[in-house]
Amino acid sequence: MDSLALGADLGPEPVVDEHSPVTLFVNGEETTLTVDHRATVLETLRERFGLTGAKKGCDHGQCGACTVLVEGRRINSCLLLAVTQDGATITTVEGLADGESLHPVQQAFVERDALQCGFCTPGQICSAVGMLREAADGRPSHITDPDTATGPVALDADEIRERMSGNLCRCGAYPRIVEAIEDVIE
Ligand code: FES
Ligand code: FES
């Protein structure tokens, strides 16, 4: 007979420590903190570091509003558990500027007025910064001609749109976002 069905005594619940210390290097500053194992990088940045630039749009890896740079690579921070990132270097939109000087991508977004409500903008900017590096490193996109992908990838408007396709803008500011990125490339 099934002992579970009889409500057999299975002993005490195992003790699970659901928190662990992690050290993160966020925007150039080293911080050690204890994180809940369920906390994402996005939640940790917003709620523990007070860095609210990255936004929780979908919380499912579909909109890109939460994009930040981890080790220089763009990631959806809503999909990444903070406890897995011990020792990681993270750059958010707040960490892109050099003192009073905006990052060139930030400056281009301002000059092109590449936003409307601005909700997606921090993610768009971080994604663009990561995307430009990926192209410079010769990493092809889905539409890159494999015969020419032997060095830095030239970014025309189609390449920019393809590479930025993970960042949605509900206001439809896409044309000016592309123009801003083209300005940086020039
Ligand atoms: S909030 Fe992370 S992809 Fe939408
Ligand atoms: S500017 Fe409003 S969602 Fe992009």
Automatic annotation (TrEMBL):
Signal peptide: none annotated. CDD domains: fer2. Residues 20-96 form the 2Fe-2S ferredoxin-type domain. Pfam families: Fer2 (PF00111), Fer2_2 (PF01799). Coiled coil: none annotated. InterPro entries: 2Fe-2S-bd (IPR002888), 2Fe-2S-bd_dom_sf (IPR036884), 2Fe-2S_ferredoxin-like_sf (IPR036010), 2Fe-2S_ferredoxin-type (IPR001041), 2Fe2S_fd_BS (IPR006058), Aldehyde_Oxdr_Iron-Sulfur (IPR052914), Beta-grasp_dom_sf (IPR012675). It comes from the Bacteria. Keywords: Iron, Metal-binding, Oxidoreductase. This is Periplasmic aromatic aldehyde oxidoreductase, iron-sulfur subunit YagT.
